[in-house]
Amino acid sequence: MAVSEDYLNYLKDQLSGFGEIEIKKMFGGLGFFKEGLMFGMVGNDSFRLKVDSTNEQDYISKGMTPYHSGSKKKGMPYWEVPADILDSKSELCLWAKKSYEIAKSAAEKK
């Protein structure tokens, strides 16, 4: 799956206040990493962030649902970021920070 360079540059710019991130091709899309931990992804032309019980209500209150891969029968822990959040650099960085903390917590439990 190709992700347009314009969209990728837009995401990088929107996340510029979040600090250094690394973007890797994976799963037919792109994974977004901070300090080696995946906190977000782009797939099917949508930017998604990692979600658990600590931030799930943020997404539900905006009418969002978890990502479902065609090959998996259940949802994945990545939910599409609502457009109003995506368009606000400060809000997007707050949501990305929550997702990074979820990824960090999950890594510490392993």
Task: Give the beta-strand count.
Answer: 6
Shape: globular
CATH H-level superfamily: YgaC/TfoX-N like chaperone
Can you name the CATH architecture?
2-Layer Sandwich
Count, helices: 4
Write the topology of this structure.
Elements lengths: L4 H10 L7 E5 L2 E6 L2 E7 L2 E5 L5 H5 L5 E3 L6 E6 L2 H4 L2 H21 L1
Antiparallel strand pairs: 1-2, 2-3, 3-4, 4-6, 5-6
Structure commentary:
This protein is an alpha+beta fold and 110 residues long. It has one domain (5-109): Yope Regulator, Chain: A (2-Layer Sandwich), CATH 3.30.1460.30. The protein has four helices and six strands; from the N terminus they run H-E-E-E-E-H-E-E-H-H. The termini are far apart. The model has no long low-confidence stretch (mean pLDDT 90).
Brief descriptors of the model:
globular; Yope Regulator, Chain: A; 29% strand; alpha+beta
Short description:
Helix content is 36%, strand content 29%. It is an alpha+beta fold and 110 residues long.
